Amino acid sequence: MSEQHDQKAYARLEQELSRLRHQLNIVSSPLAVLLKRRGFRIFLQEPAGDLLIPSKRHRGVFYDMMARYSFRLFLRDVIKHQAFFTPGMVARYATDDVTAQYISYLLSIRLIIGKDDGYAVAGKQVRSFGETLEWYVAEIFRQEFSAEAVWGVRFKGRRTGGDYDVIAKLDGVLCYTEVKSSPPKQIYESEIAAFLDRVDDLAPEIAIFLMDTELRMKDKIVPMFDAELATRGKGDIPVERMEKELFRIGRRIYIINAKDSIAGNLQNVLSTYFRGG
Fold first, then answer.
1. Which of 149, 156, 215, 222 could serve as a FRET partner for 209 with CA atoms 20 to 30 Å apart?
2. Are strands 239-243 and 253-256 parallel, antiparallel or unpaired?
3. Taking Cα atoms as reference points, which of 266, 37, 35, 255 lies closest to residue 167?
4. Spatial contact of 171 and 21, defined as CB atoms under 8 Å apart
5. In whole angstroms, how far apart are CA 210 and each of 31, 131, 176?
6. Are 258 and 213 in contact (CB under 8 A)?
7. How far apart, in whole angstroms, are the C-alpha atoms of residue 143 and residue 5?
8. 37 assigned to some structural domain
9. Helices then strands (H, E): number in the chain?
10. What is the pLDDT along the chain (277 residues), one digit of tens a residue?
């Protein structure tokens, strides 16, 4: 059998698997039901106040742009200097030519406007990049994995507070993802503890601590998880490296960054879980 024939057969199997998973997602219990069985009911989700995304007709290309790490870093700087910025103020992570292309793109979809000798975010104040990143991760679950997904979720009457950044349903499996846009140096022990508290409370089959960084996780983040597990009397549970800067704790909890791609790293986690690895 030729290599070309093998590749075509593999592509057909991938398509069929995707179709079957989509059908299973349709016939399995909705996300709201999976949450209700755990005693959770959503009272707030997907707040748009700090969301910086274009109108629906532009979101396909915007989703593709968000796959670029340099574009996400650029967008953070745009938000940081939203009242007024020049190209030089948002060009820390890309060349001048690429930054000019990014600015032209944001102008074309009306997320920014010209202002004096520079630019400004159009029409709203945005506190941070966090909600836009949560939206993007939820879209990855929807578009790449045929999942039902919501972001920016809050529940009432739970012993743990705060937002559940992204919650998705895949083949009847509940997946909770904590999304961090800050670099490792700005993550503190309390945030690790809060994540693990939410995992204990929600009891998802899969829990992911995702950092939108290409920096090493082993230097600070993994040791903080080790320390917090020890505090909880679970120091005998190792934080194991899957590959590169992707780690796991048992079969439920995964710690990942954005190196190579967020979508690719999420796929690595999901394939590891569903294979029973």
1. 156
2. unpaired
3. 35
4. yes
5. 21, 14, 10
6. yes
7. 27
8. yes
9. 9, 10
10. 465 666 666 566 666 655 555 555 555 789 999 999 999 999 999 999 999 999 999 999 999 999 999 999 999 999 999 999 999 999 999 999 999 999 999 999 999 999 999 999 998 899 999 999 999 999 999 999 999 999 999 998 887 878 999 999 998 999 999 999 999 999 999 999 999 999 999 999 999 999 999 999 999 999 999 999 999 999 899 999 999 999 999 999 999 999 999 999 999 999 999 998 6
What does the alpha-carbon distance between residue 173 and residue 165 come to, in Å, rounded to a whole number? 17
| Residue 14 included in any domain | no
Nearest to 244 by CA among 224, 217, 220, 271: 217
What's the total number of domains in the chain? 2
**CB-based contact 262:140 (threshold 8 Å):** yes
Looking at residue 235, what is its pLDDT? 87
96 within 8 A of 140, measured Cβ to Cβ: no
Structural domain boundaries, residue 87 = 56-121
Structure tokens at 104: 């032209």
Does the residue 138 lie in any domain?
Answer: yes
* 3-class SS letters over 189-225: HHHHHHHHHHHHHHCCCEEEEEECCCCCCCCCHHHHH
Q: How far apart are CA 154 and CA 196, in angstroms?
A: 16
DSSP one-letter string for 117-130: TEEEESS-----SH
- Other CB atoms within a 10 A radius of the CB of residue 37 amount to 11
Contacts of 114 (CB under 8 A, 6+ apart): 107
Instruction: Say which CATH number the domain at 79 has.
Output: 1.10.10
Residue 21 lies in a domain: no
The pLDDT of residue 70 is 97
Give the Å distances, CA to CA, from 183 to 49, 108, 122, 152, 199. 23, 30, 27, 20, 22
